[in-house]
Design brief:
One of its GO terms (biological process) is aminoglycoside antibiotic catabolic process. This protein has 9 helices and 19 strands. The chain has about 400 residues and is an alpha+beta fold. The strands form 3 sheets. It has a 7-stranded mixed sheet with strand order 1-2-3-4-5-14-6. A 7-stranded mixed sheet has the order 8-9-10-11-12-7-13, with helices on both faces. The two termini are about 25 Å apart.
Length: about 400
């Protein structure tokens, strides 16, 4: 199986091959695939010259704990024709992607997994979760709390695209786990709502000085469905939630993508008026260069930790001393005895602070060599906020 790079003139063939792998057909007028970076896309090709597999990467920025923004490749459009599966095509494409990312200076790779059992063997671990929150509007009386300052106006999606882009960009730079949305995605409507041109109403929040600092995009069709809520802080989140829950002509409000630490249920007089459902993994993280990745993010406490990291897919095993002082980490190879032994996929899961190392130790994923090591790792890897990713790609 040969892996070949693509060019712009391959776009239509690439899309046709990808959809054939999933047994589907592209929708007329779908702009999602206009954002593909064809210089980062691949074909798997048989000796006879038939294109039987695809894989691509988007050039994103990922926010790490401490509001550190770094480049990260977003793996997408991965598919192999049913007639050619289990012949090494996917493995070969993943190896090519990892090598290319490292050559570009990227030390992190991320993806959204269509199936949870596929990507661990390539070193990816689930690092963020999201869930749906369904609120019975007639039972959603708020507890007595202060009304946040500011104002909300209702706009149509087509009227305020530039404002949405601006507000989202400020938000994603402060939220661990958030990905950038490149300007050409917004310009082309290449994505799901609210990036797409699909009709939506926008509740745009402005602060006391009139500056936009949050929004929620929604559609009312019996149920009021909220695509996403973007807010500068908890006060703005509260103001937008109250606005949506006060909307007439609906009995239910569904918030589609909520972070684990969303405060809404605790703000209701009736805690059970809000129901959590469809909790799922979202962003998967893969460390391509362990020392660079551990040096890049900020750390909430001082400490020394020796990690023995196994990377079976790359055929590598490394032992690293992580030394944290004043929020900054240094990571070097060491021959000291390890505190923790773990797979690189599990390191990806704990990297953003969304999963405690002790949880993975209890699950049998991480081996703890010293009694206090798990507690220290929990303290070091903790993030200032639960990581959350809204972006679909």
């Amino acid at each position: 199986m040969e892996i070949r790079p693509t060019a712009e003139h391959d776009r239509d063939t690439f899309i046709e091959t990808l959809f054939a792998a999933f047994g589907r057909f592209p929708a007329e007028g779908d702009r999602v695939w206009s954002s593909l970076e064809m210089d980062r896309a691949l074909f798997a090709v048989t000796p006879e010259g038939r294109r039987v597999g695809t894989a691509a990467v988007y050039s994103f920025e990922l926010t790490l704990p401490g509001e550190v923004v770094v480049p990260a490749g977003g793996v997408t459009a991965v598919g192999v024709l049913p007639s050619h599966r289990r012949r090494g095509a996917l493995t070969a494409m993943m190896r090519h992607q990892h090598a290319d990312a490292r050559a570009r200076g990227e030390f992190l790779s991320v993806l959204l997994a269509s199936e949870a059992v596929i990507y661990r063997r390539f070193g990816y671990g689930p690092a963020t979760t999201t869930h749906r929150l369904t609120v019975d509007r007639l039972r959603a009386a708020p507890r007595r709390t202060a009304v946040p300052a500011g104002s909300i106006e209702v706009l149509r999606r087509a009227e305020c695209g530039d404002l949405l882009e601006e507000v989202y960009d400020r938000y994603r730079r402060a939220r661990p786990g958030a990905l950038s949305r490149p300007p050409h995605w917004w310009a082309r409507g290449a994505g799901q709502a609210p990036i797409s041109a699909a009709p939506r109403y926008v509740a745009l929040h402005r602060d006391a000085d009139g500056l936009p600092d949050g929004y929620a995009t929604y559609l009312l069709d019996g149920t009021l469905t909220v695509d996403e809520t973007i807010a500068a802080d908890d006060a703005v989140t509260t103001a937008l939630a109250r606005f949506l829950l006060d909307h007439d002509l609906s009995t239910r409000v569904v918030f589609r993508h909520c972070p684990p630490d969303h405060p809404l249920r605790w703000q209701l007089a009736d805690f059970r008026a809000a129901e959590v459902s469809d909790e799922t993994d979202w962003l998967w993280v893969r460390l391509l260069d362990v020392p660079r990745a551990l040096t890049a993010r900020a750390w909430p406490a001082d400490g020394d930790l020796v990690l023995d990291v196994d990377d079976p897919f790359r055929g590598e095993r490394g032992r690293y001393l992580l030394t944290v002082r004043d929020g900054k980490g240094e990571c070097v190879a060491t021959d000291r005895e390890p505190d923790l032994s773990l797979d690189v996929s599990d390191l990806g899961s704990v990297y953003l602070g969304g999963v405690a190392p002790s949880t993975l130790a209890r699950a049998g994923h991480i081996r703890v060599h010293h009694p206090d090591a798990a507690a220290l790792a929990d303290t070091l890897f903790r993030a200032e906020r639960a990581p959350h990713c809204l972006h679909w790609f």
